[in-house]
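for the recovery benchmark. tokens below, seq after
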């Protein structure tokens, strides 16, 4: 299938038998037209085996690069201690996936100190809410230590991005 990434996504979703409705955010008339054209090709079983294999290959490559399976769904919020969980995890994920530690640390520095990863009190409330079953308190500490540049903690854990 020769298509725009959004079209690939929509076609994959519509190919799933358990999906009956797909909501797609659109910001331009061009996106509306692209989505309408994509909807005209929708249906279960419409993707060829080669296309499904390519999607699986891309998924595997993404999962190999991504250290934390956080989708930023925000189900972990509100944190009783105010930690901006998705923002903290996203900074770490981007540093690891794209190798731009300096940028990730700069952006982490812009996050209010009151909502950074080191403010986690490990109450476990987020663990109960996370559909991805991420060990959030553990990852928050790791992300904070890395993004804040705490070299002592990183050296002790042998961590690098």
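predicted aa per position
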């Amino acid at each position: 299938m020769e298509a725009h990434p959004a079209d690939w996504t929509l076609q994959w979703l519509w190919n799933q038998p358990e999906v009956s409705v797909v909501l797609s955010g659109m910001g331009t008339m061009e996106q509306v037209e692209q989505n309408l054209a994509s909807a005209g090709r929708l249906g279960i079983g419409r993707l060829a085996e080669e296309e499904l294999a390519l999607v699986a290959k891309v998924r595997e490559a993404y999962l190999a690069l991504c250290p934390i399976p956080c989708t930023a769904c925000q189900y972990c919020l509100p944190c009783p201690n105010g930690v901006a969980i998705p923002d903290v995890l996203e900074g770490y994920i981007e540093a690891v996936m794209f190798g731009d530690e300096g940028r990730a640390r700069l952006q982490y520095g812009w996050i209010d100190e009151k909502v950074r990863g080191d403010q986690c009190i490990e109450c476990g409330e987020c663990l109960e809410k996370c559909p991805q079953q991420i060990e959030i308190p553990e990852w928050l500490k790791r992300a904070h230590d890395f993004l804040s540049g705490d070299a002592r903690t990183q050296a002790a854990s042998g961590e690098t991005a």
